[in-house]
Amino acid sequence: MLKRIDHIGIAVRSLQETIPYYEKTLGLKPSAVEEVESQKVRTVFFEIGEVHIELLEPTSPESPVAKFMEKNGGPGIHHIAFCTDDIGEQLKQASSNGCRLIHEVPIEGAGDKMVAFLHPKSTFGVLTEFCAAK
Ligand code: ZN
Predict the structure, then answer these.
(1) Is the pTM of this model over 0.85?
(2) The predicted structure's pLDDT at residue 121
(3) Per CATH, is 2-133 categorized as 3.10.180.10?
């Protein structure tokens, strides 16, 4: 079962350029920067109540986030992440309802979590992530 929205992922060209907007202009506190090798990104989280904003900076032109920005003409909202206690069950439910999966099994995500994505072609244009504590 989905519990809540965990975070909203935002693709950026540079964390260094973008962090001051969230930190100074909006007054949010950044987490430590973390590199997520499986996704070829560097990430930072800002907490707002129960929800987080995740900034994603590609570390390689091969990064899915780099490709997203290329395709969409630049930075912007990249994905929405739902917190669940059972990613496998969510994937099964999605797949049995005809949804295309990017990950058949969960992979390592940022913030010591397991994650899996649904394909935006099956989710009406919104890249969708399930995440769960390890
Ligand atoms: Zn995410």
Answers:
(1) yes
(2) 93
(3) yes
